[in-house]
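Thread title: Can someone regenerate the structure for this chain?

I was given the following input by a collaborator and told the matching structure tokens would be attached. They weren't. Posting the sequence so someone can regenerate them.
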Amino acid sequence: MKVAIVGAGLAGLVSIKSCKEEGLEATCFELTPYIGGLWAARRGDAGVSAVYDHLITNFNKEMMSFSDYPMPAHYPTYLPKKMFHDYVMSYCERFDLEKDIKLQHKVTNIQRSEDYSESGCWDVTVTRLFPVGDETVEETMRFDAVMICVGAYAYPHMPEIPGLQRFKGRVLHSQDYTNSSEFDARERVLVVGNSHSGCDIATDLCHRLSKREKVMDQVSNHMIAQISDSLTEEERTAAHFIAHSTKQVLGVEKPPVYMSSRSGVDILKRNYGKPVGLSVSFATDDLRLCFPSLFQRLLRWQVGSGFDFKKYGLNSPITKPGRSPFAINDDFYDYLTKGMVKAVPEVLEVSDNSVTLSGGEELEVDGLIMATGYDIHLPMVCPEVINVDSLKLYKHIWPVNSQRGTLAVIGLFKVAGSSPMILELQARCAVQVFKGGFKLPSCDVMESTTKAYRPNAGDHVKVQFISYVRDLAKCVGCLPTFGAYWTQPLKWFRVYFGSAFPYIFRLVGPGSCEESWDRLVTARSRIHASPEEIRIAEARRKKRNDNIFVGLILTATAALYITLWGFSLYFTWKSLKFGWSCIRSLFDSLKTLYASFSK
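Best answer:
Regenerated them for you:
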């Protein structure tokens, strides 16, 4: 079975891997000359999004790992952009995925084959972007199935604010933001939007430098580099401190970075006693479903969100049970309280060099950064197949008008959780449908049970993390159930109440592997740990398991001994009681006989 995959980002790579795992022939077409999607993209590439330089993953490395390829032990708990891209490339190399990828190939059209109703096949038109001779080459190929893996972060959404076209300063989307060096320290910058990217960019802009500071920074670094070989570690540290202090003295006073928002948000830190994500489990998901209000209170108590939003100009977050909006940032609260970031209300209108806020205040700014999300566009698919204006995807994967289920959309979601985990399960689920391991319901059923996306709405592609993951795993056949562990209750307790690491979905069903259980039980020890600490922890775990085994044997032996001793006492008591009754009977008989003789 031949499968066409559009895009070689995370979604495309796990789709190739899932196809190869089940014996399908995959061919991936990638628009850019590199692999890795937004983690590898460069600023200015058309039709692709790039992440900013200082981005750090929001969830710990074990939650961000692929289910059958854990991250190296020496990786930090949270990964910077380059390190995560290195991990993705090592995943690609480990499973030999690169040979199935055709770089600089643009998919321009996907349409049903003439015999689609019988075969379910698709005609895919591909344009080779690097010329052969004087012409680009366009080719139409036939595939048994198609997986569209372009994601939800390719086409930036620019809000329609009155007067925006008249603004004389810089206007850019968060997609085009690289780092704080793009702005001078004297510039007044307003970030529109308070999501993850909005908070990250606002805090990063607090480090912007003036032209004088940039020159000083380059000169001092160059001078220290020239003499670094002759300096000790203490002298090198002192030189950097002196250069930094001089730069602060001769620097300029920076205006605050303004951040505009129309709704409230909770700002969480990556570590609130323990890394973000470790509290996510099957048990907490059932708690959210059964007792949403209680779950919301427990969540707020755990993350310690007692921040006074109104005092600093932020609205209180919307508190729908289990759906409170939040962003993850370690520095935002500190910068907000220090005045380096200032929260302002919603922008109503833009003029030449200022904006008008919802409270009537006018704010002079030199630059606008729109952290306002992304629109959905699938230009390679005709509207008859997928209409993005009224997009309805069954389980966020299949178009509801898909008669054969051979077209799957992977990665068109937004989630407060681990994206790699969901991407992998979506791909595995689609492949099971292609093979016939899981059957889709009729088009009418899919239509009636699927909610239509609302274009440009903030929650149009949001999913509940663990609920959605469990639903996908059930379709794949890799969801651990109590029935599979009824003879091993301790293992089931770990699966149900423990952190929902991706290795759980390699314990049973298609693609299961023996190493998954060890990866699952040692995942916590690999967070905040060096390789030596991991080795010691694993040795202790094995020793503890041995001790538990010995303890169980001793307990069972003691229980057997006590049981036998109890039985012996019981029968001894019965024997004594029977013997006493015999003696009494004999005594009564003798007494009766003596009475008869005396008469």
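Residues 210-216, 318-323 have pLDDT under 50 and may be disordered.
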